[in-house]
């Protein structure tokens, strides 16, 4: 197979999905993931190094600055798609119950269950879902006005909602520097935020976060996917990638997203 530049692609490049190109939100084409991460974040994903830390800082600063301008509400964190909340929570609820039903007795209701809500925004997922299934939920979120709203929302839960657990710790940090307490969590829930992490930070986050899981604990990752290749959003510094790319990253924890 010939690349755009005329060089021939290796089998391993094809297997790793590097040949699948992508677009950024300005309509620019990027022919490989290698190029994408180098151009946007100064990361060389083949050598797992960052050759331009200023670029990487800019990527993260832009991402947080974007969310700092967004209203601290469910509609705000859902990018104007607030109406999706109910369907999202219903589907997650079913999913969690299915997983719990299929788990061993170790994971029984009598146990003290603890979850971590990553990139928690205004605490939507914690308030509407996690708090009903876990005795304690911690939240980690880098944008201060979102986290402040989450604290308020969780102190005053929705009327009619029988709250089972409680929100315990509120960490105002981005995932790329967050270090979870060892063996604290039964579930680490990562929803609609992992695309903000650079490729290497994505891999490193899961490696670090694994230490935060209890023996039978697990990750839940919910993210949007592209039909093919990847899409870079230059406004909020995030990537949406084809699900194949993500699965490789997650299961081999050494590749790319
Ligand atoms: C689309 S919102 C989703 C919020 C929440 N997970 C939900 O589903 O309601 C994306 C969230 O990711 C957060 N975020 C942005 N960069 C992040 C980073 N580097 N680490 C963790 N969270 C980040 C944003 O502040 C925002 O709260």
From TrEMBL:
Keywords, in A-Z order: Methyltransferase, S-adenosyl-L-methionine, Transferase
Domain of life, source organism: Eukaryota
GO molecular function: N-terminal protein N-methyltransferase activity
EC number per UniProt: 2.1.1.244
GO cellular component, one term: cytoplasm
InterPro entries: MeTrfase_NTM1, SAM-dependent_MTases_sf
Catalysed reaction equations from the record: N-terminal L-prolyl-L-prolyl-L-lysyl-[protein] + 2 S-adenosyl-L-methionine = N-terminal N,N-dimethyl-L-prolyl-L-prolyl-L-lysyl-[protein] + 2 S-adenosyl-L-homocysteine + 2 H(+); N-terminal L-seryl-L-prolyl-L-lysyl-[protein] + 3 S-adenosyl-L-methionine = N-terminal N,N,N-trimethyl-L-seryl-L-prolyl-L-lysyl-[protein] + 3 S-adenosyl-L-homocysteine + 3 H(+); N-terminal L-alanyl-L-prolyl-L-lysyl-[protein] + 3 S-adenosyl-L-methionine = N-terminal N,N,N-trimethyl-L-alanyl-L-prolyl-L-lysyl-[protein] + 3 S-adenosyl-L-homocysteine + 3 H(+)
Binding locations of S-adenosyl-L-methionine: 119, 124, 175-176, 191
GO biological process: methylation
Pfam families with a match to the protein in the record: Methyltransf_PK
Family in the record: Belongs to the methyltransferase superfamily. NTM1 family.
Name of this protein: Alpha N-terminal protein methyltransferase 1
